[in-house]
Amino acid sequence: MAKCEICSKDVHFGIKVSHSHRRSNKMWKANVKKVKINANGVVRTANVCTRCLRSNLVARA
């Protein structure tokens, strides 16, 4: 679901700690957008994280 098709960034798991130091499980999702990209001359839609979009790792169509 929240996985980048360029750099394979996906969800991370950890522990959320509250102010009173109660601990509970937490899941952080990657900021993934569905965009049209130009891959080898073919226009297709892909799930790409915003870091790959910002650093120009993909060519938007």
From TrEMBL:
InterPro entries documented for this protein: Bacterial_rp_bL28, Ribosomal_bL28, Ribosomal_bL28/bL31-like_sf, Ribosomal_bL28_bact-type, Ribosomal_bL28_sf
GO terms (BP aspect): translation
Entry-linked Pfam families: Ribosomal_L28
An annotated Gene Ontology molecular function: structural constituent of ribosome
UniProt keyword annotations, A-Z: Ribonucleoprotein, Ribosomal protein
Gene Ontology CC: ribonucleoprotein complex; ribosome
Family per record: Belongs to the bacterial ribosomal protein bL28 family.
Protein name as catalogued: Large ribosomal subunit protein bL28
UniProt source species: Holtiella tumoricola
Gene: rpmB
